[in-house]
Amino acid sequence: MRHLLLLVVTIVFIGSGASAAEITGRYVLEKVEQGFLRLDSETGAMALCTAKAGVWECDAIKDQGLDLTAELARLKADNEKLKARVAELEKGAGATKLPSDQEVDRMMDIFGKMFDRFLDFAREMDGKTKDGTSL
Fold this sequence. Notes:
Low-confidence stretches: 1-8
Distance between the termini: 109 Å
Structural class: alpha+beta
Number of helices: 3
Largest sheet: 4 strands, antiparallel
Number of strands: 4
Strand order of the largest sheet: 1-2-3-4
């Protein structure tokens, strides 16, 4: 049934003399040496239609640009790796330990001593002592 419909459509296009640019349906047929080239305007798939023993048959044309199975498999594998990594990171999220009050106090003492030394150094460079008198 499909072959008969394709044959009727082909005959109509040949009889009307319509070029591919004038056709506004889903399929665009273009006359080529071997028969007709059919382009699916929705998917971009192409097929070569030929008459074999009075029956029209359309064979799909392999287009490397449309064969995305390898790229799809690679992307799926990458996605699975990323999902596993996210799950791993989410499990370890509770492992973050905040410093205790004692550790914070110790660090504040260290920073305080460093700041005092820095001020002493700056005063020394100015030529003044801690009480503000000149050396």
